[in-house]
Amino acid sequence: MPIALLSRHIARAVGGTNLGPRFLTLGKTQLSHTHERKSHLMKKRIVAAVGVFATLAAALTGCSGGGTASASSCTNTIVQDGAPQVTVWAWYPAFQDVVDQFNNTHTDVQVCWSNAGQGLDEYSKFSTAIQAKTGAPDVIMLENEVLPTFTAQNALEDLTSYGANDVKTNYTAGAWKDVSSGSGVYAIPVDAGPVGFLYRKDIFDKYGITVPKTWDEYAEDAQKLKDAGFSGVIGNYQTNGTAFNVALFAQAGAELYSFDSSSPTTVGIDVDNAATVKVLSFWNDLIQKGLVSADDSNTSDWTTKMVSGGYASYIVASWGSGYLQGASGADEDAVWQAAPLPQWDAKNPVQVNQGGSSFAVTTQAKDKALSAEVAKEIFGTQDAWKIGIEKGALFPTYGPILNSTYFAEREDPFFSNQQTNKEVFIPAAQAYTGYTFLPFQTYAYDQQTQAFSAVAKGTKSPTQALTDLQDTLVNYAKQQGFTVK
Fold it and tell me: Which of these three, 370, 395, 410, is where a domain ends?
C-alpha cells in the first residue's frame, strides 16, 4: 500500500480524514539501527492498517500510560511495591538488567518495563495510542530520526521544564542536537552510532593497500585492488542505506532537512545541492567502473560477500562489528581492523553518525516530572552503562562513561584486541555535531532508496535523481499540509 494511501486508510479507520502534518505515517521502515545490533536480517515491510489496530489490544492490556501499573503487567520485577511506577517501552538488548539495576537502587520510583516491539512494531502501537488518546507508556524508547514525527503530533513532552538542560553537559553535542528542536528538548540521549572504516587487514596487506585517509585515496585503492587481480571489490555502496546515505552527505557539508517544533507545519528540504551531487557522483563513478558494488544491504548476497571477503572494507557505525561476528559463513582467515572514516579534506575532518536512540516522555504520562526523572536516570550511571556496553553492545552518548578509561581502553577481540573505541569511535562521537530529520522521515527514506537505485542501475544521472527526489519530497510535504521553506 503506498504510504499516502496508508495515511488516509488509517485516518478513516479511526473515523477521521487525512490528518496531514498532525498524523505522519510511518509506512515502510528501514532497519531499526538499534535493532541492527541484534538482528540484521529483518526485512523492510509495510504494516497494513488492520495490523496497526490489532496491536492496539496488546498495547492496552500491557503497561498502560497515565498511572500506576500493576506488577503483573511488567516484564520485570517490582522491588518496591509501595513506590509509584513509571511505564516504559523499550527494546534495548539486555535492558532487563538495566531495569533491575534501576529498581534495586531507587526507593522513590520503580520502572515497569514492557517490550512493545522493535522499531516500527512499537511505533505503530504508539501511533494508535496517540489517536486513541490512551494506551501510551509514560516513557518510550525512540530512534532519533523519528522524534520529529511524534513531536509534530504533540505526542512528546518538551523536557526543558523538567530539568533536561541540567544534564545537557553529560552528553555529546551531537547527541543533544539529535533530541532537540528549537528551544525544546524532546528526549534524553542513550546510544549512538559513530561511523568508522572497517577493513580486511589480511586483504589490504596481501595486495599492498594502505588504509585510505581520504575519499580520493579510497578510489585509488579500489583501482589498485582491481588491477592486482582481487576477485572482490573494495566495498559496497548501499543504495538502500538510509541513515548511511544521510551520514555520507552530511560529511560533505549537506544539511538535507530542517524542522523546528515551534513551527511544526513548516519543513526545509534541500537534497539537491552541490554536496549531495558530489557524493552521489563519486560513488556512481566507482559503481560504473566496477570498483565497488551497489548491492542492497541486509540481503543474503550482501551478507555472504561481507563476511567471506567479497568486500575488502565496510563503512559502518560502531555496531558493525556485532553484525560481522553474528553472521554465518565467515572467512576463518579474516583479520578485521578499524580506522577513521576517509575524509574529503584530511586537514578538516568531519565525523558522522549512523543511528542512535533516546528516551522520550509521552504527553499521556500522568506524572510527567517523575517520568522525566526516569528518562534522565535509567542510563544515567556508569553501572547502568557497563551493563549496556558489556551485555548489549550499546555505544554510549553519556559523557562520564564515554570519556572513561574503562571504555576507551577496552580491547576488542574481534579486531585482534585493537582499542577501537579510543582510536576510532570515541573521537568520531565527540566530533559529531548532530542532524535534523523530517516529520515524515521514513517516506523520505523510501523515496531516497528508489532514487539512488536508479542511479546505480544507470537509468538516472546523480543530478537528475537528486532533482527528482527534491521535487518528490517537496510535493509530498505540501500535499500533507506542510509549508516548505
Answer: 410
List the CATH number of the domain containing 105. 3.40.190.10
**pTM value?**
0.86
Taking the C-alpha atoms of residue 251 and residue 328, their distance in angstroms, rounded to an integer, is: 32
**Domain with 328 in it:** 194-350+437-484
**To the nearest whole number, what is the mean pLDDT of the chain?**
87
Would you say how long the chain is, in residues?
485
Q: Is residue 81 part of a domain?
A: yes
127 and 66 within one domain: yes
Q: Are residues 235 and 342 in the same domain?
A: yes
CB atoms within 10 A of CB 49: 20
Q: Same domain for 199 and 340?
A: yes
For residue 348, CA distances in Å to 117, 213, 467, 482 come to: 41, 12, 28, 36
State the CB neighbour count (10 A cutoff) for residue 57.
12
* Positive or negative: CA dihedral 161, 148, 322, 29: positive
Alpha carbons 14 and 281: distance in angstroms, whole number: 45
Q: What is the pLDDT of residues 159-210, one digit of tens each?
A: 999 999 999 999 999 999 999 999 999 999 999 999 999 999 999 999 999 9
pLDDT average, residue stretch 440-457: 97
Residue 396: what pLDDT? 98
Find, among 340, 301, 354, 314, the residue nearest to 233 by Cα.
Answer: 314
Task: Give how many domains the chain has, as a whole number.
Answer: 2
Q: Is 134 exposed, middle or buried (0-12, 13-18, 19+ CB in 10 A)?
A: middle
pLDDT band at 327 (very low <50, low <70, confident <90, very high): confident
Single out the residue in 373, 391, 410 at which a domain terminates: 410
Q: What is the DSSP string of 291-324?
A: SSB-PPTTSHHHHHHHHHTSBSEEEEETTHHHHH
The reply to whether 359 and 475 lie within a common domain is no
Give yes or no: residues 307 and 390 share one domain: no
pLDDT mean over 437-444? 97
Helix (H, G, I), strand (E, B) or coil at 452: helix
C-alpha distances out from residue 453 to 238, 239, 250, 300, Å: 9, 5, 20, 18
Beta pairing class for 188-200 and 336-340: antiparallel
Domain membership of residue 334 (yes or no) is: yes
Q: Is residue 422 part of a domain?
A: no
